[in-house]
Design brief:
With 757 residues, the chain is an alpha/beta fold. Among the domains are: 17-252, P-loop containing nucleotide triphosphate hydrolases (Rossmann fold, 3-Layer(aba) Sandwich), CATH 3.40.50.300; 265-503 and 522-558, Rossmann fold (3-Layer(aba) Sandwich). Bound molecules: adenosine-5'-diphosphate and magnesium ion (MG). Adenosine-5'-diphosphate is lined by residues 66, 68-70, 73, 90, 92-98, 357, 385-386.
Length: 757
């Protein structure tokens, strides 16, 4: 409408297309803004098409098949479009991503943002996987626009990111990497930033990114709009909101809802003994081969062990695993792989618990109890996304049941018990035992998995749920296929605290360090591990032990500090070396002799001269000394001919000795036979014959060997023709001797031979 009026007023002079487009856009923007300014509430709008959005955004949404708004989108988008700060809270899977991406695109569009304006919008995500996911959605709906967008999550070389970062209009970033660029990338400016988004703010806080976020926010212009989204409304999220938002609109959906988990999610728990868990899991997988399943475990080591051993069991469905010890690029690959598979089982740690949107996940199985109800909600949030159906199964050991169910009830999680039919259960213990027996790596992983699980339980904050002393340690170790129970010290300590109860536990020095630590949440520890120093994330990468390889193993969640430090040049280096040396000697003290011998340097062969001084078998001469005896080629030729002569002489001697030996042997045999014959009045027993044949064969072998030796020597260049002839005639003689037909023949030949010598 408006553009037409303007057009008709102006004379039809030749205008460039660009000018026309600009004018049209301007008109469109004015129309949008007047709509936004109207008092008419937009919170009832049902379709994206009815929102005051740019045509480009609408087209992008249409192409990505988004037509109808979700509840959080209905509430948050109009406010964000009106440039208000928003604090949005809604369950996982309810569509928060579009709630900030749509406003970002339109706000920048309305500001006529272009390449020269620099960074206009910044989205911070707690994990790289989630950042990738946000970026993918942005690409999908933003392709109709002309903004440049980038992903800053590490994993790529820092300088490559540095080159590109300066040119981006929209960035999706993880906190650590972003701060690193703010500090180190000269071309990176945020002075013009219009919109800041903190997605999964609860998790950003949980992971201990608070200080990083504060540092990032300090670098941003005060005059900006901030959108903060979160699945749960924790205290820390409110703290963050206070710090970063100005007069925010608080938008929460589902707060009054009866349940905190998606409606189409059916949730069950099963109470089982710790040692039954893997059997149940295996039986579950075998009966769900046409499903897409995520299985949550409490540590990387367990994830690895279960992954490796289940792969060997070949249940008939692709198995993959995702955990924090994998290299970043690998994690992203696995994430994509699982996203694209129709049927698969993904074993993972809580790294995948929040924010990731795997399409069409049918089942979330929690093999290990989550640390609290919030973690439970996040884990099950991986299924029943948006409008889909989903199922969740939680495995609880008897000691966890009461405490955890109480927690879930308080958080309005509707969950019911199911019993597993015994006849559906299949035991894999024998197979696991044989894997551990056959493959030391699996056994090693099993031991680590055992310790990691026990430790994770020990370190849990909620002692009303997690009772490490009540766990059947031995039975659990057996269920992993281990012949003995690995030694763990902290259980003893826990017992002391609990009162006198005896469980067979012994020392393990690896745990000493961590025992001195306070009990912390899993995310505290994750944070400590991966972000001890946000600025040095790339240093951490330098010592990233290729995450996923077996045998890179000293990947103790709580010991990374030491490992990272000792590879950096620092004041503490000497200290670290001492500790390392101590650790080593302690470990060595525990190692068996065999193991020690295997690890120690190999021995060297020495020769002693006449004065009894040791020398290396081969010692290097000075070049000048070496050349005194002629150049390399003449020395080589001299060596060959000299050694050749020696060999020839030795050969003749050897042959003579061998011949004599053979003849003597035969003679002895003859004598024996003769004696035997005389004794048995001329009758040869069959046994004797047999004996004879065997000895004969032995001799033939000897001869063969000998001939081969000789042949090797003959083949060398130094042998001349006449020698050859002599050799062949000798050979003939030997052959004559070797083909006797009767015992008498042999006797005669033997005598002849003896006489010939
Ligand atoms: P959250 O961030 O709240 O956990 P997401 O933004 O990841 O949720 O969205 C969850 C799923 O719902 C995604 O697969 C997304 O494509 C889908 N979705 C979101 N909004 C809509 C919509 N308006 N119409 C259809 N699907 C949607
Ligand atoms: Mg999300």
């Amino acid at each position: 409408m408006a553009p037409h009026q303007q057009k008709s007023k102006q004379p039809p002079k030749k205008e460039s297309q660009r000018v026309i487009r600009r004018r049209n856009e301007k008109a469109e923007i004015e129309a949008i803004e007047s709509k936004l300014a109207s008092p008419e509430p937009l919170s009832d709008v049902k379709y994206f098409n009815d929102l005051p959005l740019s045509e480009k955004t609408k087209e992008g949404l249409k192409k990505a098949n988004f037509t109808q708004l979700t509840e959080i989108q209905r509430k948050a988008i109009p406010l964000a479009l009106a440039k208000r700060d928003v604090l949005g809270a809604a369950k996982t899977g309810s569509g928060k991503t579009l709630s900030f991406l749509i406003p970002i695109l339109d706000l920048l569009y309305r500001s006529q943002w272009n390449a020269s304006d620099g960074l206009g919008a910044l989205i911070i995500s707690p994990t790289r996987e989630l950042a990738v996911q946000i970026f993918e959605v942005l690409k999908k709906i933003g392709r109709t626009h002309t903004f440049s967008a980038g992903l800053i999550i590490g994993g790529k070389e820092f300088h490559v990111e540095q080159e590109r970062i300066a040119m981006m209009n929209i960035l999706v970033a993880t906190p650590g990497r972003l701060l690193q660029h703010m500090d180190q990338s000269v071309g990176f400016h945020c002075d013009n930033l219009q919109v800041l988004v903190l997605d999964e703010a609860d998790r950003i806080m949980d992971m201990g990114f608070q200080r990083t976020i504060n540092a990032v926010v300090e670098n941003l212009p005060k005059q900006r709009q901030t959108l903060l989204f979160s699945a749960t409304q924790t205290r820390s999220v409110k703290d963050l909101a206070r710090l970063s938002l100005r007069d925010p609109e608080y938008v929460a959906v589902h707060e009054q809802a009866e349940h905190s988990t998606p409606q189409k999610l059916t949730q069950h728990y099963v109470v089982c003994e710790l040692q039954e868990k893997l059997d149940i899991l295996y039986s579950f997988i075998k009966t769900h081969l046409k499903s897409k399943v995520i299985v949550f475990l409490s540590s990387c080591k367990q994830t690895r062990f279960v992954f490796e051993s289940f792969c060997k069991l070949q249940p008939g469905i692709p198995i993959i695993h995702l955990h924090g010890k994998q290299k970043q690029t690998k994690r992203v690959d696995i994430f994509r792989q699982f996203t694209n598979s129709q049927h698969a089982v993904l074993f993972c740690t809580d790294i995948a618990a929040r924010g990731l949107d795997f399409p069409a996940v049918d089942w979330v199985v929690q093999l290990d109890c989550p640390e609290d109800a919030d973690t439970y909600i996040h884990r099950v949030g991986r299924t029943a996304r948006f409008d889909a159906e989903g199922h969740a199964l939680l495995m609880l050991v008897p000691s966890e049941k009461e405490g955890m169910l109480e927690e879930l009830k308080n958080k309005k999680v509707p969950i019911e018990e199911i019993k597993i039919r015994a006849n559906k259960q299949q035991s894999i213990q024998t197979q696991l035992q044989s894997f551990c027996f056959q493959d030391p790596e699996i056994k090693y992983l099993g031991q680590r998995a055992f310790v990691a699980y026990m430790r994770s339980v020990y370190l849990q904050r909620k002692k009303n749920i997690f009772k490490v002393t009540e766990l059947p340690a031995d039975a659990f170790a057996h269920s992993l296929g281990l012949a003995g129970t690995p030694k763990i010290k902290f259980v003893k300590k826990a017992e002391k605290a609990m009162g006198p109860k005896v469980v067979d536990t012994k020392e393990e020095e690896e745990q000493e360090q961590e025992e001195n630590q306070q009990t912390k949440t899993k995310y505290d520890r994750m944070f400590q591990k991966r972000n001890q120093d946000i600025l040095s994330e790339h240093y951490t990468k330098l010592v990233d032990y290729e995450g996923d390889k077996l045998g890179d193993e000293d990947d103790d969640d709580f010991m990374t500090l030491g490992r990272v430090n000792h590879t950096l040049e620092s004041d503490e280096e000497d200290n670290m070396k001492d500790t390392k040396a101590n650790n080593l000697s302690k470990r060595q003290a525990k190692m068996g002799k065999k193991e020690l011998a295997k690890r120690s340097a190999k021995g060297e062969k020495l020769v002693f001269d006449e004065e009894g001084k040791p020398h290396q078998l081969y010692e290097m001469l000075d070049e000048s000394d070496f050349l005194k005896a002629g150049d390399a080629k003449t020395q080589k030729d001299a060596f060959i001919s000299e050694t050749g002569e020696l060999m020839k002489v030795a050969d003749i001697d050897d042959k003579a000795v061998a011949k004599q030996k053979r003849a003597e042997k035969k003679m002895k045999r003859k004598m024996k036979e003769r004696e035997a014959r005389e004794l048995a009045a001329g009758k040869g027993s069959e046994d004797d014959m047999e004996q004879y044949t065997e000895e004969e064969e032995e001799e033939e072998e000897e001869e063969e060997e000998y001939t081969q030796k000789r042949k090797w020597f003959q083949g060398s260049d130094n042998e001349d023709e006449s020698d050859d002839q002599e050799e062949s005639s000798r050979k003939k003689r030997v052959l004559q001797v070797d083909e006797p037909e009767t015992i008498q023949d042999q006797e005669a030949l033997a005598l002849k031979l003896l006489g010939g010598l």
